[in-house]
Specification:
This protein is α+β, with helices and mostly antiparallel strands and 498 residues long. The chain has 18 helices and 19 strands. Bound molecules: flavin-adenine dinucleotide.
């Protein structure tokens, strides 16, 4: 794997591979264990395809009891485990390790309960995000968080990554729409956090679990909130001659107290690539395009469209179109939703970044990105969840040119450093994984990281669950103890050290 340092494989585990595979077959009989190199190839990477690694063995359990037995077995024998949903992570969260069991949750694929009285759905973690909406849409309901990958990504992966999407500006991220989970700890214990009720007592462990990137436990059941579909929705396409003007328009819309159902922005290269790909009707002579969707009762939408038009005009909008039919609204979104594959047509490879900034810093960051693009000699196309300040720069490169992937990675790291410098964060929705792991020090002090590691150690003291992800290399429960011994006094003596 190019340049990526992962935890060294444990020789004792590697030597016991045949025994571990045989034991996995006992726990998960039938076709639930995949062990040949050819069959395991399908699992060697996730959405961050720059990195690949065959796992020790792939195990696909079907029940919580099987997951509990696998984790207990691995915990007792010091075997690492990497959880995986659909494998669409863009930060390498599900990247296998040579000496780890890859625990694939895709056979947990049933919607277990639809509870309209509590507006909740209980689903197994391998159910796709979109399948939850499909299960309730005939009754006028839907599940709001809508990652672009929703046709494929699992709801378990969404919880682990705190996934977001176009509609999260108004309706919240996964964290705001998950009511409860059943999860298995590395020890094999099964715990329940939250449920169909609105609030839970005690510490917000559900909040802690959401976005924990497979480091704290394996989610085996999820209760999500569903919403009634809005009465109507209309989308606007507003074009600008500069990204800065479009960015200011976004800030002014939010500043006026308007919360659109979705507010997305694309820059010139992304607009032209998307239009060429799906013919969404985007103007080609603008440098930035906003898609603003307003939803709710018809008269409210009409009123808000008027307000947004006025704000856009004040910011120098050069084109404006409002959808007049559901078909047209969907066509406005089709270009945005196809933006990633569309960019794939104009460059042999692209590297999708994910950072979040305060909205008002957008002009500064865009200008900085242009300078970096010149410095590295690589193009960049931009697609943003503009309302949330969540950027997705797509760095264009050619992996066949020696050194270009490394250049793209360094360019991406500089963009994220810039995001942190202007008061933003390293990730908006794609997670830290292996991709941003070594940049965590840009954002957190050693003390911050130690505190986060103490949480990890409380759940998984031997550091067996998804190691090598999120924490900069070489931080482990044991090192935590070693680093902070003051005058012979061991802090937190109750935390186990190995
Ligand atoms: C084309 C494309 C578009 C995308 N668009 C978006 C977007 O708009 N918004 C967005 O947020 N993301 C987006 N993503 C990223 C990705 O789809 C999300 O992060 C998604 O939540 C990952 O789900 P998954 O099932 O594929 O998880 P995986 O990739 O399999 O795993 C992701 C992480 O979750 C952990 N994990 C998975 N299942 C479990 C479980 N049951 N218990 C504990 N841990 C688990 C894994 O260990 C890993 O760390 C996109 C990806 C692609 C390829």
């Amino acid at each position: 794997m190019s340049g990526l340092v992962m935890p060294e494989a444990d020789a004792a585990t590697m030597a016991r591979r045949a025994e571990i595979v045989a034991d996995m077959r006992i726990i998960v009989p039938g076709e639930g264990v995949v062990e040949t190199v050819n069959e395991m190839r399908a699992f060697e990477t996730d959405g961050l395809t720059a990195y690949r690694q065959l796992p020790l063995v792939v195990v696909l359990p079907e029940t919580t009891a099987q997951v509990a037995r696998i984790l207990k077995y691995c915990n007792e024998r010091n075997v690492r485990v990497v959880p995986r949903g659909s494998g669409t992570s863009l930060s390498g969260g599900a990247l296998p390790l040579e000496d780890a069991v890859l625990l694939v949750m895709s056979r947990f694929n049933r919607v277990l309960d639809i509870d309209y009285a509590n507006r909740a759905v209980i689903a197994q973690p391998g159910v796709t995000n979109l399948a939850i909406t499909h299960a309730v849409e005939q009754d006028g309901f839907y599940y709001a968080p809508d990652p672009s990958s929703q046709i494929a990504c699992s709801i378990g992966g969404n919880v682990a990554e705190n996934a977001g999407g176009v509609h999260c500006l108004k309706y919240g991220l996964t964290a705001n729409n998950v009511l409860g989970v059943e999860m298995v700890l590395m020890s094999g214990e099964v715990v329940r956090l939250g449920g169909s009720h609105l609030d839970a007592e005690g510490y917000d462990l559900l909040g802690l679990m959401t976005g924990s990137e497979g480091l704290l436990g394996v989610v085996t059941e999820i209760t999500v909130r569903i919403l009634k579909k809005p009465e109507a929705a209309r989308a606007m396409l507003v074009g600008f001659s500069s990204s800065e003007a479009a960015g200011q328009c976004v800030a002014d819309i939010i500043g006026a107290g308007i919360v659109p159902g979705g507010m997305e922005m694309m820059d010139g290269p992304a607009i032209r690539a998307a239009e060429d790909f799906v013919q969404a009707g985007y103007p080609l002579d603008v440098e930035a395009l906003l898609i603003v969707e307003l939803d709710g009762p018809g008269p409210e939408i009409d009123h808000l469209i008027g307000e947004v038009e006025a704000i856009a005009a004040k910011n120098g909008a050069v084109t404006s179109r409002i959808s007049t039919s559901e078909e047209e609204r969907l066509s406005f979104w089709a270009g945005r939703k196809a933006a990633f594959p569309a960019v794939g047509r104009i460059s042999p490879d692209y590297y999708c970044m994910d950072g979040t900034i305060p909205r008002k810093a957008l002009p500064t960051v865009l200008a900085g990105m242009r300078q970096l693009s010149q410095k590295y000699g690589l193009g960049v196309a931009n697609v943003f969840h503009a309302g949330d300040g969540n950027l997705h720069p797509l760095i264009l490169y050619d992996a066949n040119n020696p050194g270009e992937l490394e250049k793209a990675e360094e360019f991406g790291a500089d963009i994220l450093r810039l995001c942190v410098k202007v008061g933003g964060v390293l990730t908006g929705e794609h997670g830290v994984g292996v991709e941003k792991r070594d940049l965590m020090g840009e954002m957190f002090s050693d003390t911050d990281l130690d505190q986060q590691m103490r949480v990890k150690c409380a759940f998984d003291p031997q550091h067996l669950l998804n190691p090598g992800k999120v924490f900069p290399q070489l931080r482990r429960c044991a090192e935590l103890g070693r680093m902070h011994i003051h005058r012979g006094q061991i802090p937190f003596p109750d935390i186990p050290r190995f």
